[in-house]
């Protein structure tokens, strides 16, 4: 349910923000209204279906896996998520591979901080900061190498 609520209205809300930044107020408000209507329709529709069908929303008991297998599955999921997201935006295969590896590294860093006892929000911040600094250094490095 949560993926539907974030994905479906996300595109019109994102483009509404871009329209606002370009000072296209009428287009921004119409896309914002469309995004809100999609959000509300999805929320009410899914809530009604869950109520009628009486879907059990309690979380299932966790599957007991070894630490190394859990770590490997998290690494695969991180890579596939980053790689797939890059492919969504028609990135070349080489760029998508780099994005997948960066996502893997950043998420492993975040999980390492979380496993060491740091709260999830600061661990996520430092993981995102690390990937941002890596990308920034790559951009600066490639810019200076491209200069004559």
Report on this model:
The chain is mostly helical and 148 residues long. It has two domains: 2-53; 67-146, no CATH class. The chain contains six helices and no strands. The chain has helices at residues 2-7, 10-21, 25-53, 67-88, 93-115, 120-146. Helix 2 packs antiparallel against helix 3, helix 4 (67-88) runs antiparallel to helix 5 and helix 5 (93-115) runs antiparallel to helix 6. It is flat and about 40 Å long. The model has no long low-confidence stretch (mean pLDDT 84).
List its traits:
mainly alpha; 148 residues; 2 domains
Oligomer: single chain
Q: How large a portion of the residues is in β-strands, by DSSP E?
A: under 5%
Task: Spell out the helices and strands N to C.
Answer: HHHHHH
- What is the mean predicted local confidence, pLDDT? 84
Share of helical residues: over 70%
- Radius of gyration equals 20 Å
Largest sheet data: none
Query: What is the global morphology?
Result: flat
| Beta-strand segment tally | 0
> Which blocks of ≥5 consecutive residues have pLDDT under 50?
none
Distance between the termini: 52 Å
Number of helices: 6
**Total domain modules:** 2
**Class by alpha and beta content:** mainly alpha
